[in-house]
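Researcher: Batch entry, complex prediction.
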Amino acid sequence: MIRRIAELLRLKTRRQFRLTFRAIVLTAAAAVGFASAVFLELHAFRSAGLLFVLSLVFTLLELVVADFVAETAYPLKTEKQLALLEDRLGEATVHALTLKLTRIISGFKSCDHSLISGTVHILVELSPSAEDKTRLGLLQLTDYVGPYGGSKGRITTLEKGIVGRCARTAKTEYVNFANIAQYRHRMVQEFGFSATETERHTILAKSYLAHPLVLGPKVIGVLYFFSTEPQVFPHGARESDLDSLGQDVADLLKTVSIV
Amino acid sequence: MNSYGYEQIAAEYYDAFHKTCRNFDVATKAALATHPVQIAGAGLVLEVGCGRGRAGEFLGIPEERIIQLDVTREMLALEPREKSILRIHADATSVPIFDAQFEYVVGFLIDPFIGLAFFAEAYRLLKPGGILVATTPSAEWGFALRGRVDADAASTARFITKKKETVEVPSTLVPVRRIEEMLLFSGFHEIETYSQALPAGTAPISPDVETAAIRARVDLHDLPLIDLIKAVKRP
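Model: Structure tokens for the complex:
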């Protein structure tokens, strides 16, 4: 349940989660403590006792449960890796990536460029889980260029979405949805998302494209674009343009030691 | 459910109750009367988004040349319907037929699937020299009615059923200039587009047509209601 609340509050990092959780629990504990004191003054010892027990529960939540959830949902190793990437990336590189994304979008043919959003995801190693010793994920490296989409820092696993599929197949992947009902259906049936996760995405988008970023024989990341205009991809994008601009992005990431 | 919405309105889609659709029919006939399409004497015709079939009614194509295609099973099962040699249940942007099989690809009101993917697919399916003939609701009418603000409004139409239920269906509005650009990009040439307003004397007139004309501040018989598209695959 705590994880669900964290998802609803869009807490992306361990630090955000811990600070938010601490603030909530301390506020609740203070309120309960105050109420307990009031009941003591009124000689309502049973109610005061119950509230005291409740304050102990809050303490337990903060000292034990929150740490456990933080460790499983926001592994420290992954968090450190993300912080390191942010430091290495720097403002100049983010600016250069944004310009390259804008250039790629303006090169798409026969479509409304103002309706297209894009970003870069890179392959990162996540902390091992009980099921997987080596686990790869995709980290959204930049804020979206364009009208829609969230901010950088989002991590998805390789099993999910068109971005994950692209990283697995090392090929350009695309998908088009005729309407929102079809989007909801196919994201769950074909792209590994839960119905709840699907609702958190930009459901207005109709056409998606993911192009692998390759260095040598290895996929190092994914260029990701979507448009609210139907059927833009794959026909609006030339594979050769994506290859050449994708290589620019991959080289830039290599230069700044991101990959 | 992989729903397109049309399955919910298939049974009543062709009823007089849906005045906007019937106004589209009148405009389509008027457009084809003004800009007739000469159908050559042989070869297969693919009718995309066929519903109960209109290729015979609008273009006089004999049933033994027509293959009907629709993504909605309920639309393909409608009776009474125009006869054809085959009915295919498939998406018009991904047709399970080999390249260059048709002399004509025709579609009446292709707004549920209009776009680069459809034009590219039509091009693939046509023989060299083959012709695409299609109509789609005019963007001038549609944007006046739906507004331009909401991204979803540009690609969704709403039907009110006889039971007063609202059904949303995919319906993309594309301005004529963009349609021409897409056709050119897909490889077509000899591209012709014509806009057709609702002819004078049409009755009844849909409130959606009247409302759009008021919002666009033009006479409703001057407001383009449908666009007729003709394009040829390079020989």
